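Design request, tokens follow.
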């Protein structure tokens, strides 16, 4: 009798583990994607920030760019392109878009104070 109970417990335990395996894998894969996307965002954000600053100077804001600045701009652009290409190669065939989402809003939205009686709490 004890042997049958042990087998049933083992069977139920195996069935539960097998049933939970896909969910655990999805959680692990999701965390991996989120971590990679965050790391990619951190990596690319700094390069893009420097490129944006150099491009603003090219458009006339601040002192004009020197030849050295133009060389740095070209190197940063090449670094950004190479980094994105490496990320694309890493995720090729997965169907996953690794690219970090761009922020939609860059400011704070503040609520306008409504006159008394119009807030629906009369």
């Amino acid at each position: 009798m004890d042997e049958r109970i042990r087998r049933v417990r083992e069977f139920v335990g195996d069935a539960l583990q097998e049933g939970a395996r896909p969910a655990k894998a999805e959680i692990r894969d999701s965390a991996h994607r989120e971590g990679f996307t965050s790391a990619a965002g951190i990596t690319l954000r700094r390069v893009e920030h420097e490129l944006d600053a150099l491009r603003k100077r090219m458009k006339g804001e601040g002192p004009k760019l020197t030849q050295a600045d133009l060389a740095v701009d070209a190197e940063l652009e090449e670094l950004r392109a190479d980094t994105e290409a490496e990320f694309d190669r890493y995720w090729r065939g997965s169907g996953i878009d690794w690219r970090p989402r761009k922020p939609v809003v860059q400011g704070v939205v503040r609520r306008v104070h409504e006159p008394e009686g119009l807030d629906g709490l009369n």
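Comment from the thread starter after seeing the answer: thanks! The chain has two helices and no strands.
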